[in-house]
What we know:
Number of strands: 13
CATH architecture of the largest domain: 3-Layer(aba) Sandwich
Low-confidence stretches: 14-23, 226-232
Oligomer: single chain
Helix content: 25-40%
Shape: elongated
CATH class of the largest domain: Alpha Beta
CATH topology of the largest domain: Rossmann fold
Number of domains: 2
Structural class: alpha/beta
Amino acid sequence: MKRLTLIWTLLALLLFAGIYTYLGTQQIERIRIEVQGEHLSAEALRPRVEAWHGARFWSLDLQQVREAVIADPWVAKAQAWRVWPHTLVVRATAEVPVARWDNAALVDRRGHVFYPPEGTQAFANLLRLDGPDPKAAPALLELAVRLSRLAPEWGLTRLEAVPGGSVLTYWSKQHPIWLEQAQAGVQLRRLQQTWDAVKPALRQATDHIDLRYSNGFVIKLRNEHDGIEKTE
Length: 232
């Protein structure tokens, strides 16, 4: 009886060793790439993951695969997993640009700034954000959304932040407007409430409007050194 038990134990160990050896030698023979969104293709991503072709199935480092994929500027999110017996699946979600940054980069909905290798010429129709530090992009994007909702009839096209907390805004149907970033919404509403009262000739001669005043605003005329202050 003991001998029979020993035989079965040895057979089980041999079977386990065989299975372990088989599993340990399984390799990645196929890499499937799934892409979600525009501006991204499986062909463009394949060189980033081709190095794992032939890698051991179970010892494959999926985190390294994800990091290699997310390094592509157009990838917003990367996933990777194994499919038995020899497939690596990679799924990449593309960035969705909603604005430009300093005419050299793009900005997604989260305010993340990324630099596409092909440049930003194809996205000239997007809102432009400018500033000394790309880290300010989330706050500027949020401000741009608020101002666009406050004055959709003027059509915000560009927002430029400058040191000191001021922003210069450009519009398709209004003159450039200086605002304080912390009070931008209140100041813009003040202009909306009084702009129709400004004489047409003065509006036509306007170069830009400065709303960074507590009791009114200044209209700077073209080719003039002095503006005209309008108080409430």
